[in-house]
Structure formats: C-alpha cells, structure tokens
Amino acid sequence: MAIKVHEVLKNVTWLIGGYKKLFSSKLTELVTGTWKSIKAEVYYPTMKAPVQFTELLEFHSMGQPLLNYSSETRHPQNKSVMHLERGFLRVDDDRSTVALLTSQNFGLSTLEEGYVKDKEMVLATACIGIMKFAKQTVLALHRSYRLTEDGKLQYCAMMETPQTPLTKHVEVEYEKIKGPESTREYDHKTFVN
To answer: Which is nearest to 123 in space by CA: 157, 172, 164?
Structure first.
C-alpha cells in the first residue's frame, strides 16, 4: 500500500526525512523518522543530581495531515522503562502553526501549540490534564526541536511546577537511525512499568 506524506507536513519533514524523497510518487511504505539519543540528561532544582537516560524518538506519517509521535526513555544500565509519551503532531493549513497532543505514562496529557520555522519547532502548553492521583503536578511545559547542520536533532524541555518556575528540565541530542533498524517493533512488555 502506497502512503504519500500529506502536503501540509512540508515544513516538518525534517523530522522524518527529506522533502523530495518523501513526496515521491514511488513511496511504498510507512514514512518514519526514528531518532536515537546520543546524549540525554534530565535535571531539575528538586532533583539531587542529573540523571542520564537513553531515548528512542519517532515521528511517522500515515498519509494524514499529522505525524504520529512516540518517545520511550530507558535507564542506560538496566534498560528499565522510565518515561513514555505517545501523541500526534498536527500542522495547520498555514504550514507553520503546529500543535502537539501527548499522553504520558505518569498521568499527564498536554496540548502544546507553537510554530515551525526552517528546521526548528517551538511549543508551549496551551492545556494540561493531570490525573488526580499523579505524583507530580506540572503547570507548564515548553519544548523545542532543532535540526543541526550536521543532521543531529537537538531537544530541550522546560517545566514549571508549583515549587519551581519555568526551568530547563531535559536536554537530548539524537542521531537518525537509517535502514532496517528504523522500523520499530513494539513489545508488549514495553508498556508495563
């Protein structure tokens, strides 16, 4: 089944691959941008020390005017799951206004809105939902993704809580996985904490 990337995604195709390649009439498979962390650290004023992690980040197209999004972080030594996010990156008809809808395994759902310009995307929370028995309350999130000239993806997340102002929380640098490794096979154990 041929899947063609939706035209409205033109300005975010750097998350999955090059524009010319993706809009080819010969496209015959799911178009996925799979990124693996090469440096990843989470820190916050309420933490005793920074924590390293590994992450697999994916954006993929199924022909709709959106990209499916997933993030899976694991402990670098014992490989246990730390943080999971699933969602959708929507792009408006103007091709520069974006919205990221996410659901996270620790009881947080967000709607983040922002813009994409050149090879950078900036988002800030418009709405947050938190389950009533969540251990952490989040008041705001800001995220940015940027593709560097050497093809690396840089990510920065800032977070505000009742105890802390908007503060840098996560920094990651990724490299794109190419070839057969970029096809993700999900294991049911992945979703068990």
So the answer is: 157
Strand partners, 90: 66, 99
> Could you state, in order of their start, the residue ranges of all structural domains in the chain?
14-176
Architecture of the CATH domain 14-176: Beta Barrel (2.40)
User: Can you say how many angstroms the Cα of residue 70 is from the centroid of all Cα atoms in its chain?
Assistant: 6
Beta strand residue intervals within the chain, DSSP E: 31-42, 51-52, 54-61, 66-74, 81-91, 97-104, 108-117, 120-130, 140-147, 153-160, 167-176
Q: Tens digits of per-residue pLDDT, 70-116?
A: 999 999 999 999 999 999 999 999 999 999 999 999 999 999 999 99
Tokens of 50: 């920074």
Strand, coil or helix: 13: helix
Max Cα-Cα span within the chain = 53
Rg of the chain (C-alpha set): 17
Q: Which amino acid is at 105?
A: N
Cα–Cα distance for residue pair 27/50, rounded to 1 Å: 42
CA-to-CA distance for 123 and 112, rounded, in angstroms? 6
Angle at 92 between CA 24 and CA 67, to 5 degrees: 55
